[in-house]
Amino acid sequence: MKSVEYDLRFLHAGLEMLEEYLLSEEVFWPMSANPPQGEPGYPQLTLDWILLASARLEARQLSFEQKEQVRELIGDLDLNRSRWRVAWEKKTRQCFQVRLRMWRGFLQEYKDNPQEHADRYAYEVRLRTMLELLGDEYQPQNAEDIESLSRLDKYLRSAFMPAEFTWEGEIQAGFPRDKYWFLYGKLSASAGES
To answer: Is a pLDDT exceeding 60 seen at residue 192?
Structure first.
């Protein structure tokens, strides 16, 4: 479980380099921030990681000071979104296509060997969550991307076993079941269980 401070530091560091990142051709950008002691290292900066960190922060019960920090960071994020609209949309498309390939790859690995890969779902489902967050930023223009995600969701539903919220309960309110249905369950460890 990642702490509030973990997401705050990530978002703060990401926003400091967001303009340079948005105007680049890169999908993945090196992060120079250090996470709180005892927590995992930060991933490379991507637009979807910024959106995910923001969503997790907005979902948490925060102190007054933390709420003010989040409000300020989200305000900066919105300002960048408006100021660099074309670059934001381009980066969103790039990230969407990369995450779609990664999600397809995981589901193919699972399909090929459910027993070996079912337990990775709680980690890998972040990719599907990122796709949902990116989809909120723009409607994928490429019909192939939309159809591909729809096919992947159809397959996922066939192997999906509804259960409790996959991630830590303290952020559950920010990811309602009707929209983020894939966060409320797990994958069957064998084809016969689904």
So the answer is: no
